[in-house]
Predict the structure.
Amino acid sequence: MGDSIFTKILRGEIPCHKVYEDDHVLAFLDINPISRGHTLVIPKEPAETIDKLSDDAAAAIGRVLPRISRAVLAATGTQAFNLLQNNGVAAHQAVFHVHFHIIPMHDDSTGLGIVWRPGKLADGAELAKSIASKL
């Protein structure tokens, strides 16, 4: 894994507006926020996508995401938010270090331009069995 901006932030080479840190996780404000309070939560373990993250690092993020989300909502006075996590170029990942976006939605927020185009589930039983067998 190469040096991403998040790796440089973790090493202290680039400053950030830190909101949370423990032995496994760092959270800080996004410098190009979609809305006021847009916060990034990253593991300290280097991994480009979540499927490459260790169970321990993933659990550490899972333990703090709700707490950080509550703090962002309380500090911004909002009640709604998006939690966004992209993996790979085709999924719009721009920084290749696992990261979660907590994006509070204000009344005047333009927010995310998500378009959901649902399809039809054709082979549900077979696909579920295949996925389960890979666990």
The chain has a mean pLDDT of 93.
